[in-house]
């Protein structure tokens, strides 16, 4: 779906603004990918990923050629030894999500916070992309 804004035809925000990179070597099924909410505000975009059970050190967030990639690979091992038995458990969790950033995002000012199982990214818009206030033009 295309939307007309300021005499430019743009892709629908939810359909095209952030395109998942399904062909970037991602071997993870859709069922294991974190759910994502994307909102466009007047001055920025917000991106929230539901990823409970991780620590902020577990995430890798990169930007390369206007592609924002969020990934994690966590391995955990636990071993308990008692008199007559040993219990060993291990787990591995990983995911990778990639999004094509719109040209309006100021990639140098992106901010990320992880709290309560939610990874929140704020993607500020470039100054030239912000809405201009209404002004009166004098007739000379």
Describe the model.
The protein is mainly beta. It has one domain: Immunoglobulin-like, CATH 2.60.40. Helix content is 4%, strand content 49%. It is built from one helix and nine strands, in the order E-E-H-E-E-E-E-E-E-E. The strands form three sheets. It has a four-stranded antiparallel sheet with strand order 3-4-9-8, with no helix packed on it. It has a three-stranded antiparallel sheet with strand order 5-6-7, with no helix packed on it. It has a two-stranded antiparallel sheet with strand order 1-2. The longest helix has 5 residues, at 13-17. The chain is rod-shaped. The N and C termini lie far apart (43 Å). The model is unreliable at 1-17 and 21-31 (pLDDT under 50).
How many β-strand runs?
9
The rounded distance between the terminal residues' Cα atoms is 43 Å
By secondary-structure content and strand pairing, the structural class works out as: mainly beta
Oligomeric assembly: single chain
- Sheet-strand content, in percent, reads over 45%
Quick structural overview:
The chain has 140 residues and is mostly beta strands. It is built from one helix and nine strands.
Features:
Immunoglobulin-like; 140 residues; single chain; 1 helix
């Amino acid at each position: 779906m295309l939307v007309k804004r300021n005499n430019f035809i743009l892709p629908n925000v939810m359909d095209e603004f952030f395109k998942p990179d399904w062909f970037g070597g991602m071997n993870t099924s859709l069922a294991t990918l974190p759910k994502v909410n994307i909102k466009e505000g007047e001055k920025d975009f917000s991106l929230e990923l539901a990823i409970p059970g991780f620590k902020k050190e577990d995430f890798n967030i990169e930007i390369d050629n206007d592609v924002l990639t969020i990934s994690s690979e966590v391995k955990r091992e636990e071993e308990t030894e008692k008199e007559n038995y040993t219990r060993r458990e291990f787990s591995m969790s990983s995911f990778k999500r990639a999004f094509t950033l719109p040209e309006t995002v100021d990639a140098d000012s992106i901010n990320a916070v992880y709290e309560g199982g939610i990874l929140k990214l704020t993607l500020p818009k470039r100054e030239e992309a912000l809405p201009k206030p209404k002004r009166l033009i004098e007739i000379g």
